[in-house]
Amino acid sequence: MKPSLCEPFDRWFVLTGAGVSAESGVPTFRSGGSALWSRYRIEELATPEGFAANPLLVWQWYVWRRELIRRAEPNPGHLALARIEEFASDFLLATQNVDGLHQRAGSRRIEELHGNIFLNRCSRCTWEGEIDESTLPPLCPECGSLVRPGVVWFGEPLPEAALRAAERAARSCRVCLVVGTSALVEPAASLPRIAKARGALLLEVNPEETPLSPLADRTYRLPAAQALPELVETLATKGRLDL
Ligand code: OAD
Ligand code: ZN
Q1: What one-character-per-residue DSSP string does 198-231 give?
Q2: What are the CA-CA distances from residue 144 to residues 6, 121, 141 (Å)?
Q3: Is the pLDDT reported for residue 84 higher than 70?
Q4: What does the buried/exposed string (b/e) look like for 188-208 if buried means 16 or more CB atoms within 10 Å of the residue's CB?
Q5: Is the pLDDT of residue 1 over 60?
Q6: Which letter does DSSP use for residue 139 in this model?
Q7: Given CB 3.0 to 4.6 Å as the disulfide criterion, which of 74, 88, 103, 188 pairs with 12?
Q8: Residue of the CA atom closest to atom 14 of ligand 1
Q9: Closest residue (by CA) to atom 32 of ligand 1?
Q10: In this prediction, what percent of the chain has a pLDDT beyond 70?
């Protein structure tokens, strides 16, 4: 029989994507975008090949996004997810976002599947540290090679520990909540399928239909900053969410 309600203290696994930060003013990857950068394809900006071909262009794009994210604030959707973490008996938030807004909203049990945009590391040796963003592209103080942002690009493996932890949470959760992802990029997109196959309830928050929508027990076709505070309010006041 299909379970029909979820409760605040359930074991929660949350997967987020760019949509959760949309209302903080951070553009998503596959819808909209900025006029300034839309003439470049994502392959030119977020792949090792694109970086090798034009490190200056790629760095200019990242520095532009860093500035935008520094000025952005977490929105009510980020804050609502931090509240679920407070009442859940077990909780993990896996995000594909690199903006750090979940942490700024108070989320603690979080895995960054695609890295963090504010990290810098050498593309050749093990150096990590601060760079001068006004002199691009930055070069490694240890070996002179190009420094790159600490994010995962297309074709690169995800940080292994983060992915393992997310898979573990997906396998053992009772409620899997997917927010603001087009669910097109693997392996992150498979995590909710793992949860669902193990019998978890699947909730989706996304104004648009995604490949996960047909699997969901409940879909909220609303912006995250609206749907998530309402969902948390229901959990907090009624002590349950009927599906
Ligand atoms: P996408 O840009 O592919 O998808 C954003 C999703 O958010 C879409 O499904 C939108 O419908 C939805 N959305 C838009 N506004 C929303 C709102 N206010 N509330 C809720 N949902 C909203 O972003 P991701 O799925 O995160 O990877 O993309 C996955 C990965 O592809 C990214 O992490 C990045 C990208 O290339 C790397 O850089 C490796
Ligand atoms: Zn180096």
Answers
A1: TT-EEEEE-SS--TTGGG-SEEE-S-HHHHHHHH
A2: 54, 12, 6
A3: yes
A4: bbebbbbbbeeebbbbbbbee
A5: no
A6: B
A7: 88
A8: 19
A9: 96
A10: 96
For the chain, the distance separating the N- and C-terminal CA atoms, rounded to the nearest angstrom, is 14
Q: Which two tokens stand for residue 11?
A: 């074991």
Of residues 2 and 182, more confidently modeled? 182
Beta bridge partners of 177: 14, 203
Residue minimizing CA distance to atom 33 of ligand 1: 96
pLDDT at 32 over 70: no
Query: Measured between alpha carbons, how far is residue 35 from residues 56, 97, 111 in Å?
Result: 19, 21, 31
CB atoms within 10 A of CB 186: 9
CB atoms closer than 10 angstroms to residue 135 = 9
Atom of ligand 1 nearest to the CA of 154: 39
Average pLDDT taken over every residue of the chain: 95
Q: Which residues line ligand 1 (CB under 6 A)?
A: 17-19, 22-23, 28-31, 42, 46, 96, 114, 152-154, 180-182, 184-185, 205-208, 210, 223-224
CA–CA separation, 172 vs 53, rounded Å? 43
Identify the helix (H) or strand (E) that includes residue 50: helix 48-53
Q: Report the pLDDT value the prediction gives residue 44, as an integer from 0 to 100.
A: 87
How far apart are the CA of 23 and the centre of ligand 1, in A? 12
